Amino acid sequence: MKGNLPGLVYLERYCNEGTRSYSRHAAYTEAWDTYRPENFKPCFELPCFILPAAELNTYFANPSEPLLDLYCLRDGFRFCVHPQVLKTDAGDDYVRHLLVYGRSHAPLRVSPSSSTRTLFVRDQTPHHALKVHFPYRISRYGRKMRDEVIEQAINVSHELEANIEKFDDRFAFLREVIGISFKNRTPQLPRGEHWGYLVRDMRPFPLTDLNVSLVPGFALYGKDIGERQSAPLLPLLIGQRDPLDYVLEQIMLPILRHWVSAFLHLGYMLEPHGQNVLLEINDNNDIKRIVHRDLSVGIDMRRRRFLNLAEKHINDYNRMETGHFASIAYDKFMGAHFFEEIVSLCHRTYGVSADSFRRPCRDEFLRLFPEHQNYFPSSVQYFSEEYDQFGKPGFHDTQHPPVWRPEF
Ligand SMILES: Nc1ncnc2c1ncn2[C@@H]1O[C@H](COP(=O)(O)OP(=O)(O)OP(=O)(O)O)[C@@H](O)[C@H]1O
Ligand SMILES: [Mg+2]
C-alpha cells in the first residue's frame, strides 16, 4: 500500500459506492448522467462569462495571486455557470441577465467532486475547485449557491484562518477564498435569490510542503467502482497495526476534538460526515491531519454571544438559537453517518465492538466540553420530512439517546 494511493479525483469519483444509505434521500440526484461524479468522462467544460464589476457582489478571504488573476480580470470578473443550469434554466432572471450583459469567455475544464456541484478545476495552479450554483436536488436539498451563502462561506473562511492557532496541529481546512454573485435584482422578495459561485483553494491550510495524499472520509469504507482497489481502504491503511488504536487516535478523536474546538472558540458546527473530511496520509499510511471542507456551517448564536462574537464577522445565514442542529451535525453527520460506517467495517473485519470506539469518544467529549448540556438536547435530533417555503427541513426529535456523547 505504501505511497500507492489513488489520487484525490479518482477517490472522490470512484471510491464512493455504497456509502449513500444514511437517509432515505441520500442516493437521490437530479444531476444529469454526464455531470455526475461516478461517470467515466474525465472532465467537462464549465461555461464562463465576463461580467462588469458593477453587476456583481464580490467577497475575498486572502486569495493567492494566481487565483485572483484567474477570476478577477482586467475588464470585470469571471462568472462560472454549471452547464446544466444554462441548458435548463434560461427562464431564470439571472441566467437571462447573464446572457444579455455577460461576454463569453474561454471555458474551464473541470471534473465533478463527490458533492457533484463542487468542481475540480483541471490544468490550473494552485489546485482549486469551484462550488457552483446547482438548483437541483441532490440528496435532501436543492443545491443553490445564493449570495448570502457565498458571503458567509467567505466570512467563515476568513475567521477560521485568523483563529487557526486555536486548533491543534492535526486540524486543517480548505479555504473558500473568492466569492462572486449577482447583485440582487429582486430586493422585494423575502429572501435574496441572487446566486453565484465560490472559489475553494484545495491546498489544505495551514500550508505545508509535506508529501501527503488526500483521501476523502467515505473512501475508507466505500467500494471502488473503478476497481483499482478490491477491498475498502481502511484495513489496507491499518496494515499490521491495532485497528482500535489507529481509528481512535488518527481518525475519531482528532475529528471530535476539532468539532468541539470549532464550537467552543467560534460557535461553528462543523459537519464532518464522510464527504466533508479529507485525510492527509503520509507514506507510512499515517493520518497526519484531518482536512475539513465545506464552510457552510451552522452557527450557534448562544455560543457566539458568550464569546462576544455575536454580530462580528458573520451575516444572518445559518444562525441557530437552539441545539437541534448541534445534535444533527455531531450525533448524525459525524457519529451516525461517518463513524458508524467505520465501526461496522471494523466489527466485520476485526471483531472490535462498537462500544470500544464510542466509549473513549464519549469520555473525550465530556473532558473537553463539560458544559455540553447547556448547548445540546438530551436526545438525538434529525431532519423532519416537513419543509418550509424555501425547501429547508425542520427538526425532528428521534428520542434516541446519544452514543457519541454522554447521556444526560
Ligand atoms: N459518502 C457521502 N456522505 C455524505 N454525502 C455524500 C457522500 N457522497 C456524496 N455525498 C454528497 O455530497 C454532498 C454533501 O452535502 P454537503 O452540503 O456536505 O456538500 P456540498 O455543500 O454540496 O459540497 P462541498 O462539500 O464540496 O462544499 C451531497 O450532495 C451528498 O449527496
Ligand atoms: Mg460537503
Task: Fill in the keyword field for this structure.
Transferase(Phosphotransferase), domain 1; alpha+beta; 408 residues; 24% strand; 9-stranded antiparallel sheet; binds adenosine-5'-triphosphate; 10 helices; binds magnesium ion; 4-stranded mixed sheet
Write the layout of secondary structure elements.
Blueprint lengths: L7 H7 L29 E8 L4 E5 L4 H7 E2 L2 E5 L2 H6 L4 H9 L1 E10 L5 E4 L6 E5 L1 E5 L2 E3 L3 H16 L8 E3 L2 E7 L13 E6 L11 E4 L16 H6 L4 H24 L1 E2 L7 E5 L5 E6 L5 E3 H6 L12 E2 L3 H27 L3 H15 L12 E7 L5 E5 L11
Helix pairs in contact: 7-9, 7-10
Bound molecules: adenosine-5'-triphosphate (ATP) and magnesium ion.
Adenosine-5'-triphosphate binds next to loops.
Description:
- The mean pLDDT is 96.
- The N and C termini lie far apart (43 Å).
- Helix 7 (243-266) runs antiparallel to helix 9 (324-350) and helix 7 (243-266) packs parallel to helix 10 (354-368).
- 30% of the residues lie in helices and 24% in strands.
- The protein folds into 2 domains: 26-201, no CATH class; 213-397, Transferase(Phosphotransferase), domain 1 (Orthogonal Bundle).
- By secondary structure, the protein is of the alpha+beta class.
- It has helices at residues 8-14, 65-71, 83-88, 93-101, 147-162, 233-238, 243-266, 301-306, 324-350, 354-368; strands spanning 44-51, 56-60, 72-73, 76-80, 103-112, 118-121, 128-132, 134-138, 141-143, 171-173, 176-182, 196-201, 213-216, 268-269, 277-281, 287-292, 298-300, 319-320, 381-387, 393-397.
- Bound molecules: adenosine-5'-triphosphate (ATP) and magnesium ion.
- The site of magnesium ion has 4 residues, from loops.
